[in-house]
Amino acid sequence: MNASGTDTGAPHIRRALARDAKRLTRLVRTSRAYEGHWAPMVEGYRVGPDYVESHRVFVAVAGTEGPVLGFYSLVLDPGGRRGLGELDLMFVSDTAQGHGVGRRLVEHLREEAARAGLDAVRVVAHPPAEGFYRRVGAERTGTVAATPPYVMWDRPELMLPIV
C-alpha cells in the first residue's frame, strides 16, 4: 500500500481496452521521469484507442479494475525481423514505482513474447531507465542516435532475452 492508499503489491495484468487510452495517455504525460529537459519527448503524446486496439498493449491495475499502475506495448517482428519483438512503450505510475510493478510487467512481457515465439525483445530506453532494464536481465547492445526535434538525446539500446 502506498501513501495514496493504492494497493501496488500484486497488480492484475490484462489486455488494454480502447477505453483505457485516456488513462494511459495521462500516465505518459504526467510521468516525473519526463520532467525538465526530458519533457518535450512526451509533450502532446497520445495513446489513442486505435493504438490500443491495433497493438499488444497490457495494463497493470490494482485489484481487477482499479487504477492503472503501469502498462507496456509489445510489437512483434518489427521490420520483418522474425523472432524479435520490440518494447514500444512501458510506463509505471509515479506512485507505483518501487513496488515491483515494473518487474511484474517485464515478467508478463516475457511470457507474452515466449507465447509469440520470440527469442528476444529490443528495448530503446529512456536514458534514466537503463539501470532498471539491466536489472531485469536486458543487455546493452548499442546506442540509438537522437532524432531531433522530437528526441534530442541518444538512447541506450538493449536486448531482453526471452528464456
What does the model show?
By secondary structure, this protein is an alpha+beta fold. The chain is 22% helix and 28% strand. It has helices at residues 21-29, 49-54, 101-115, 130-135, and strands at 12-15, 56-61, 68-76, 84-92, 120-124, 139-144, 155-161. It has a seven-stranded mixed sheet. The longest helix has 15 residues, at 101-115.
Question: What descriptors fit this protein?
Answer:
single chain; 163 residues; alpha+beta; seven-stranded mixed β-sheet; 22% helix; 28% strand; globular; disordered N terminus
Poorly predicted parts: 1-8
Beta percentage is 25-35%
Q: What's the SSE pattern?
A: EHHEEEHEHEE
Q: Tally the helices.
A: 4
Number of strands: 7
The share of residues in helices is: 10-25%
* Rg result: 15 Å
* Shape verdict: globular
Q: SS-based structural class? A: alpha+beta
For the largest beta-sheet, the strand count, sense and barrel status come to: 7 strands, mixed
Major sheet: order of its strands? Answer: 1-2-3-4-5-7-6
The separation of the N and C termini measures: 31 Å
Would you tell me the overall average pLDDT? 91
What's a quick, concise take on this entry?
The chain has 163 residues and is of the alpha+beta class. Helices cover 22% and strands 28% of the residues.
